[in-house]
Specification:
Length: 409
């Protein structure tokens, strides 16, 4: 009982921290473009990730790096999606869609992993789904674009929970895994911000937006990710997703207190049903033995199929390099426009600062540094890919040729 209740309490803390994301970031997203905001959030955690990797370098392995890159990439995608959804709809409406995570998790476990869910799980999921319908039908959703993006954000978070559970089936060192996730998120954030970020629409309010970004980075990204890495192995993904169902309720409360957003009576009734469904499922899991099966098999089979073929092992990195080069050259060129602009204004840099153009200069420096990191990363990927292909060619086992003696009739 204690072994399950304690991790559940940590994930409940995660839920509260996630719930504050929507209300706290909503104001800043009115001044900072969502992609740039997420970029600032994730890059803020880059020093912490590097320090963790330095301190835990002895526990590093290829398996840890691979798992960290996969988890960090998916979490980065989820965070970007949620930030973009907040641009098109309210904080309360965006927070509603994670309440579908429990039902989505049960469906994923049943459809893709062939893991049957109990009657209590389906009953709790049905109650939560009804509550979600009431919540959504009584809120301003900002059109189909806002609804679709918010739904995808919740779906990506659910997939992240399943992948986190799968990646920790083996005895993987959690701290280097956590560091790799943070560094991966920062790397993807730099690339996405460079390619798709609207830097001209950034009009921050200092120092308020700095404190908002620091809170979002530390309280809603760093701590929840750390808790997931350390505690996911003790709780099934379905249970975690059901606990996250409470997120819209807490999000609506925080939005009401922080942004003064309100709901009609039917919305609060739907919130009550969501809470009831969560309590039913969580208590049933806490009091009964864990009968869930490992989700490792489908992922392991897919990984074996990819690495069994040498052509696949070589073609995928080359395809990734080709796509990366096209994106970098198409959107930034070489040398990037930020480098050329910075070189052009360098003699008049002091004059621009005296004229009150600090924001323009700072953003230009950030773009130039990010383009430098992007091209250095691409060059490193090219070197590692060539090294990987050569090692694969040299270490690939040769199939012995058997010569059969001729037969004479």
């Amino acid at each position: 009982m204690k072994v399950k209740i304690v991790p559940c309490l940590f994930f409940l803390l995660n839920t509260f921290l996630f719930a504050t994301y929507y209300a706290v970031s909503k104001e800043a997203l009115g001044r900072i473009e969502p992609i740039i905001f997420s970029f600032c959030e994730m890059v803020t955690l880059l020093p912490a990730g590097i320090c963790i990797l330095i301190m835990t370098r002895k526990d590093m392995s290829k398996a840890v790096i691979k798992r960290g890159v996969i988890l960090g990439s998916l979490l980065c995608l989820a965070l970007f999606t949620i930030a973009i959804a907040l641009k098109y709809t309210t904080a309360t409406s965006t927070a509603f869609f994670p309440s579908l995570n429990g039902l989505l998790a049960a469906l994923i476990a049943w459809l893709f992993f062939r893991q049957p869910s109990g009657k209590v799980t389906w009953f709790a999921g049905t109650i939560s789904a009804v509550g979600t319908v009431l919540l959504i039908s009584n809120s301003s959703m900002g059109g189909w674009r806002g609804m679709t993006i918010a739904f995808l954000g919740g779906l990506f978070f659910t997939c992240y929970v399943f992948l986190a559970d799968h990646q920790q089936q083996e005895d993987i060192a959690p701290w280097p895994l956590f560091g790799i996730e943070l560094v991966t998120m920062a790397g993807w954030a730099m690339l996405i911000a460079l390619l798709f970020g609207d830097w001209q629409s950034v009009h921050p309010s200092f120092p308020k937006d700095i404190w908002i970004i620091l809170y979002i980075a530390g309280a809603t990204t760093f701590l929840p990710t750390l808790i997931t890495v350390l505690m996911q192995k003790y709780v099934s993904p379905v249970t975690v997703s059901f606990i996250y169902i409470l997120e819209p309720i807490l999000g609506a409360i925080v939005a009401n207190m922080y942004l003064h957003e309100t709901l009609p009576l039917q919305g609060y009734l739907g919130g009550g049903l969501v809470v009831v469904g969560t309590i039913i499922h969580t208590l049933s899991v806490a009091w009964h033995p864990n009968r869930t099966r490992s989700f490792e098999s489908p992922f392991t089979l897919l990984d074996q199929r990819i690495h069994r073929s040498f052509v696949s092992l070589v073609s995928y990195p080359l395809l990734l390099l080709g796509i990366s080069f096209v994106l970098l050259y198409r959107f930034g060129g070489f040398p990037p426009g930020a480098w050329i602009e910075l070189f052009r204004i360098w003699p008049n840099l002091a004059t621009l600062l005296q004229q009150g153009n600090e924001t323009f200069v700072v953003l230009l420096f950030i773009q130039a540094i990010c383009w430098f990191i992007a091209w250095v990363t691409f060059s490193t990927m090219v070197i590692l890919t060539i090294y990987h292909i050569l090692i694969s060619l040299l270490s690939r086992p040769r199939v012995p040729v058997h010569h059969q003696p001729p037969r004479y009739s």
